[in-house]
Amino acid sequence: MMEMYRIEKPELLWLLLLIPLVWGIFIFLRLQKRNNRNKLIDRNLQSKIIRFDSIFKPYLRLFLWSVSLFFLIVAMANPQMGSKLEKVQRRGADIVFAIDVSKSMMAEDVKPNRLLVAKQIVGRTIDRLVSDRVGIIAYAGEAVPAVPITSDYAAAKMYLQQLNTDFLSSQGTAIGQAIRLAESYYDRDDADKILVILSDGEDHGEQAREAAREAAAKGIKIITVGIGTDTGAPIPLRRDGQLYGYKTDARGNRVITKRNQTLLYALAKASGGTYIDGNNSYEAVKKLMQLFKNLNRKTFETTRISEYKSQYQWFLGVALLFFLLYLITNERETLWLRKLNLFNENNEENEV
Prior knowledge:
Strands 6-5-4-7-8-13 form a six-stranded mixed β-sheet, with helices on both faces. The chain has helices at about 20-40, 45-50, 55-75, 115-130, 155-160, 175-180, 205-215, 260-270, 280-290, 310-330, 335-340; strands at about 5, 80, 85-90, 95-100, 135-140, 145-150, 195-200, 220-225, 235, 235-240, 240-245, 255, 275, 300-305, 310. It is an alpha/beta fold. Helix 3 runs antiparallel to helix 10 (about 310-330) and helix 6 packs parallel to helix 7.
């Protein structure tokens, strides 16, 4: 039997930093208290005036409190153990998203900008998928794989969020390269192969249409999502998030980037696909999901670990035990402990 462990809410473990913080504050206050007392009371008189003031007990109580808090936080994070491997049959198609990350995608004719709208569409679409595999390609002057074909939606969305216009150094809109790269993503012939291109369509070559026809011959259906307006907008230039100007041409004129619906429609038509207006991200996601509803999906098996059981109760029990010990332990020195002098507390030289 294979056992696997995981933490359901690992972000709560950051609370463990409270423990060294409290210890630091405690030691600082103890030293301050000692210094103040030494200023007010002669050291030779302190043992007679201040009786049964334990040096060790406050540290013991803080230790008990710290251990209790440690196990309480771990319990809140909920450690889980899974020990059952099971074969699960799933039906899915392969969907690849090709996202334009060229500078023109920073235009703000749709809010907040074209690229963020494209990422919203992809992210919300992935949220609605169940068993399809997804992949992500980023392209500008060239096309590169951002996420290989996978059923790990969380990982795909994590890498999706990292895409920006600095992801690729070469600028342009190489849709043709993105289409040809997508062909390497599909490794199953009995399920539908879908390529979703999200772009403003500013491609300056004919190779995109040729690549779309070649993809169609290999059974790849292209869905294009056009983002941007027909009137267009300037391309903002930012440094450290601050706007400092707009892109200009060789003559110093401000460049206006417009959505090229004609090209995007032609690419979709060449492969028997569909063109979608992407300016309204919610409507675009709805239309994509309607198209995905009728996909031909292949049945395949995956292995997963199931039946994760929560183990927080053990940590909570230990936390309660140490908290009870904390409650029954007082800071005053007990008479029998004073007589035993286990911690040499009568020696003022050891006082902290």
